[in-house]
C-alpha cells in the first residue's frame, strides 16, 4: 500500500530526534512524493541564463578566478558560486535537502565520486549529453566514476589515487633502490630494513585501517589488486571470491606478522601521514597530498628529502590498484538554465582550467594532458606515477544504497584486520549482507 | 466538586483565553512535529531499483510497526539497535553516577575555598563551557595511539578501536565535561545552607562525615536530584561526543546516532522509529526518577513541608492543562 500522505520530513525530524541528533537531520527537509517514471531525468539544454554552482569551500581562491573569467566571457549567463561546508557529509545533506524540496537554488553540483549512483537513481541529477564535453581528453577511469548504468550523469573535475610513499634511505639500508611491487615483497623488505641500524625500530607499513570511509577505499583497491572486484559488471556483489579474500588476507597477514602495526587500526589519512612524517613507518599508502607536507623543510617533517613514491603494492603477481577519489560535476534536475550549465562544466573540464587548478591546489586533474605539462611536472615530479595509479584505478561500488554498502564493507574489513574474524568467514557474511541489501 | 465548578466558570473561560496563545504555540512547536514523527515512523521509503535503467522507484510505503519490529529484533534496517540501546544505558548509568560523586566533591571544594575562590570556580567550570565538539576533538588527540593518555600510562592502549577501551574513552571525556555542571548546581544548593546549622552540629560533636551525611546531603538533596535528572536526560541523548571521538565504531554508538545515521541514508521512517523509542525511553526514566526520588523540577518548594502543600494543589493543575489542550 502506497502512502497517500507523506509527512514533511523537516518537521518530523526536528521533533523526532529529541534534539541531540538534530545536527545532521535539520538539513533533510522536503518531500519525496513524486512517483518517478522509468526514464532518467531529462534536462532542457536549450535554456540559457544565469546559474548557481554549489560545491565545497573554495580554499585556494582559484575557483573565484575561474568564475570571473567565465562571467566576463558570458555576461548574460553569469555563474554564481554557492560555497558549501568543507565536510562531504554536510554537502550531501544540503544537496539532498534541495533535491527533496525540488529547489532550483543550485544548478551545477559538485558531487563526490561515490554519490553518482544515488543521485542518478533518485533522478536528482539529469543525464548529460556526452558530445558536449571533452570526454576524450579526460582519463577514462575518471569518466567511469560519472557513469551509472552506462549513462553519463557527471563529468570529472578532479580525481585522485593513493600512492605508496617510501623511505629511500631505509630501502638503500636494506640494499635496494626499487620499491616493492607486492605486499609479500614489501613485508620481506621490512624484515631486511629491520636488520639495519637505522631501520630496526620501524613499524613497517601503514595505511588507513580505521573504521570509516577509508576502509572501503582500502578494500575496493585490495580486491582489484588481487584480481577480483567487490561488485561485478552487473552490480552484483562478489566479495567472497578467492581473489577478494586473498586481497583482504594480504593486509591481515601484515597485521599478524607485525609488518603493519596494531595502531594502524586507528589510522585515518592524517594519523598515518603523521606516523610517516615522524619517521615511524617505512612505507605509507596515502593520497598525493602527503607529498608536499612530508617534504616540508620547516622541521615539521623528519623525512623530507628521504622519500619517493611508487604505485601501491599488488597481491601476488598482480599490479596494485588504488581506489579513485575526486570530485565530479553534475546538473541538478530542478536547476534552471541547464544549457549554460553544460557549457560551464565543459569549461571547467578544459585543459587550461585543469592545469591551473592542479598547480594551485596540487589536486589530481581529470585531464590527461596536464600530467605531461612541463610546468606541472616541475612543481610535482611525482605526477607521472600518479597518472599511472589513476589509469589503473578502481571506482568504488556504483550502488544506490551506498551508505549501507560502505558501512557493511567497513564492518567486515575491520573485523578481519583487527583479528576478530577470519577473512573467509567475514567475506561470506558480507556477501550475504550485500545480497540482502540489493533485494 | 469545588474544583470542577471553577473550571467552567466565566473566570476560567477568561483564563483559557489568556492561556490560548501558549497552548497554540505548544501544539505547533511540540505537538504537531511529535504526531508527524510518529506517523512517519510507520512508513518506509521504496527502494526497488529498475534493472534496466537503475532508477529508483519513488515514494513511501506504509509498513505499520515494521520499523519498530526491526529495531527490537535488531534485524534488517534495525540492526544495531540493542547495541546502541545498551551503550546509551551504560553511558547514562555509569557516567552520571561518577559525575554525581565528582560533582558533589567539586562543589564542596568550591564552597570551602578560602582564597582565590573566583579562580577555582572558574577553572572547575571550564570543561562545561567548552563546546562538546571541541572537547571531543581534544580528547581525540589525547586518546591518539601516540597521544598523551598513552604516554602517561606508558602503555599503548588503542582507545579508538572497538572494545571496552572505546567505551571508557567516551565515559572519561563525558565525565570530565559534565561533572562541573552537577558541581555548579550543587554549589548553589550548598550556599543556601545556613552556617548556624553547621555550628550547631559542631557543638553537638558531630564529625565531618556525620555532618556531611546528616546535614549537607539532605539539605542539598532537592537541588542535587534535579541536577542529576537533567544530566540523565542529557546523557541519554548523547550524540556529538561519541560521534566525533569514535566515528563509526559500534562500541560508541548511541540511539541518537542510530537515528541520525538512518536519516543520512534517507531512511526517515527508521530514523523516526529510533527517535520515538528514545523519546519513550527518556520519558520512562524521567517519570520513574521523579516518582521514586521526588525530583522537584518545577521549583514548587525547597523544603519537604512546603512540598506536601504543593502536592495537594497538583491534581487541579493537571486537570486544567489537559482540559485546556483538548479545547
UniProtKB/TrEMBL annotation, chain A:
Residues 28-54 are annotated as: Disordered. One of its GO terms (molecular function) is maltose binding. The keyword Transport applies. Belongs to the bacterial solute-binding protein 1 family. Keywords: Signal, Sugar transport, Transport. Transmembrane segments: none annotated. SUPFAM superfamilies: Periplasmic binding protein-like II. It holds the Pfam family SBP_bac_1. InterPro entries: SBP, TAT_signal. It comes from Helcobacillus massiliensis. The keyword Signal applies. GO terms for cellular component: ATP-binding cassette (ABC) transporter complex, substrate-binding subunit-containing. One of its GO terms (biological process) is maltose transport. This is Multiple sugar transport system substrate-binding protein.
TrEMBL record, chain B:
Gene3D superfamilies: MetI-like (1.10.3720.10). GO terms for cellular component: plasma membrane. Residues 304-317 have a biased composition (Basic residues). GO terms for biological process: transmembrane transport. Residues 304-327 are annotated as: Disordered. The chain crosses the membrane at residues 14-39, 90-110, 122-142, 212-233, 273-294. PROSITE patterns: ABC_TM1. It is a multi-pass membrane protein. CDD domains: TM_PBP2 (cd06261). It holds the Pfam family BPD_transp_1. It is found in: Cell membrane; Membrane. Its main location: membrane. Belongs to the binding-protein-dependent transport system permease family. PANTHER family: GLUCOSE IMPORT SYSTEM PERMEASE PROTEIN GLCT, TREHALOSE TRANSPORT SYSTEM PERMEASE PROTEIN SUGA. This is Multiple sugar transport system permease protein. It comes from Helcobacillus massiliensis.
